[in-house]
Structure formats: C-alpha cells, structure tokens
Specification:
about 25% strand, single chain, 6-stranded mixed beta sheet, binds adenosine-5'-triphosphate, binds magnesium ion, 4-stranded antiparallel beta sheet, globular, about 240 residues
C-alpha cells in the first residue's frame, strides 16, 4: 500500500463559538487524487485551511508525511511540499505573471531550478507565457486560475490542495483546468481536490469524500460513488 501522505483525525475547527468542522477523518495516499465534495458551507475550505496551517484546529490531529503539522507554520509546510491553491485564486494583482510565479518559489533558493520550473509552468500554460509581463489583476478569471495553479507548482508540491479551481469559469475554461489537474496528477503530484462540480471531480478521482454540515457523510471509491444513487441524487443533480 502506498504511503499515507496526509492523515486527518478527529479534526474540529471553530470560528468563535461556531463549529464549522465537527470531527472529520480522512486520508490521502501517495499518488492518489482524492475529491472532497459537499454543498456550500459544509466545511471544505475550513478543513483545507486547517490542513495548511492557516487556521488552528480546535481538536484533532493532522499528519503530513507521518509527522503532526501542529506547531509547524504554513511556510514550513509549503517548504515540505504541502501546497494549496486557495479558493478565489489569491494572485498578486499588481504583480506580473512572472513575478507571481517567482513568489510561488519563495520557499526555494535554487535559482536555476526555479527558472527551469517557470519554463515548465509556461509549457503547461502557454497562455501564461504569452502574457508573462502582464499584471495578474488584468487577466481573466480562467487565466488567474492558471496562474494560481502555476504558482502552486513552483513550490514543488508533494500534495497539492485545490479549492474549487473551476469556480465561476466558462465551460471551456473548466475543461482546460480539469485537463491540467489530470496532467499534474499524471506527473506524480498527489492531489486533494475540492470541487462544486462533483461529477467531474469524481470522474478524475481515485477516491472521494462527501462533507455535510462539518462531517464526512460518505466516502469510497470515486467510480462507485459516481454510480451511487444517493450521491447522484444529492450532488449530481439527479
Ligand atoms: N471566517 C469565518 N468566520 C465565521 N464563520 C465562518 C468563517 N469562514 C467560514 N465560516 C463558516 O463556516 C462554515 C463552513 O464554511 P466553509 O467555507 O468551510 O464551507 P465550504 O464547504 O468551503 O463552502 P463553499 O462550497 O461555499 O466554499 C460556514 O457555515 C461558514 O459560514
Ligand atoms: Mg469553500
């Protein structure tokens, strides 16, 4: 069995007195693409923020590569390969595309490797290469999503967490993003994908988890879940 890269046990997260995540367990193994689906407000983003060290858990444990993340800052975790593409992209709007990509490599200091990886990102997203000197804030939503993914790749992720990468994008741009998610996964990056488009997410994934009101309500093989009448009724619009 492949190594467990990410293990979340009994995770609870609260905002003030309100618990958004109420005791969640799941795992991501090396080489997997795992989808986390569930309706608005279920606690998906909160879970991801706890994993990446940007929100402190109330209770529970998160292990990355066999070691608890507790006490390690977000920066250290990125350096070790736990990298997130945040909901809403979060690109630096007043910086150029190239500068945004360089910032993605802030945890590294191998100059030649960074330059080579920028070229690699440009290979995946030719659109970014064409616009290398354009300010990120003037790019379309889809282009900004490409940039956010490219920036995350610059940190050389072992596990890439993606929070709703296709939100608000046109069908063609969604196709492109899903294609790249698949491509990045094929290159050996382990992925935890949060998606509104449950059907597409489960088609890409090895395994899936459904989150409802702060808890995991279903989990299993993604293809089995795709054909599960309960999942289809609740999340695939049938
Ligand atoms: N900063 C915050 N302060 C207070 N409550 C918050 C905060 N962020 C999120 N919440 C609440 O926590 C719950 C879970 O939110 P979260 O953003 O994790 O959901 P989600 O599953 O990512 O939803 P979506 O699919 O809409 O992105 C929601 O009820 C939300 O209102
Ligand atoms: Mg969210």
């Amino acid at each position: 069995m492949a190594q467990t890269l990410l293990k979340v046990s009994g995770l609870k997260v609260a905002y003030g007195g309100i618990q958004a995540v109420k005791g969640v367990d799941f795992e991501v193994h090396e080489g997997e693409l795992v989808s986390l689906i569930g309706s608005n407000g279920a606690g998906k983003t909160t879970t991801m923020k706890a994993i990446t060290g940007t929100l402190p858990p109330l209770e529970g444990q998160i292990e990355f590569m066999g070691k608890p993340t507790k006490g390690r800052g977000a920066w250290d975790l990125v350096k070790e390969g736990l990298v997130m593409v945040p909901e809403g992209r979060g690109v630096f709007t007043r910086m150029t595309i190239t500068e945004n990509l360089q910032i993605g490599a802030y945890v590294r200091n191998d100059k030649a490797g960074i330059a080579a990886d920028i070229e690699k990102v440009f290979g995946i997203f030719p659109r970014l290469k064409e616009r290398a000197t354009q300010l990120a804030g003037t790019m379309s939503g889809g282009e900004q999503q490409m940039l956010a993914m490219g920036r995350a790749l610059m940190a050389r992720p072992k596990v890439l967490l993606m929070d709703e990468p296709t939100m608000g994008l046109s069908p063609i741009m969604c196709d492109k993003i899903f294609e790249v998610v698949q491509e990045v996964h094929n290159q050996g990056v382990t992925i935890l994908l949060v998606e509104q488009n449950a059907s597409r997410a489960l088609q890409l994934a090895d395994r899936g988890y459904v989150m409802e009101s702060g808890l995991i309500s279903m989990s299993g093989d993604a293809k089995v879940m795709l054909n599960d009448p309960k999942v289809r009724a609740a999340y695939l619009g049938e």
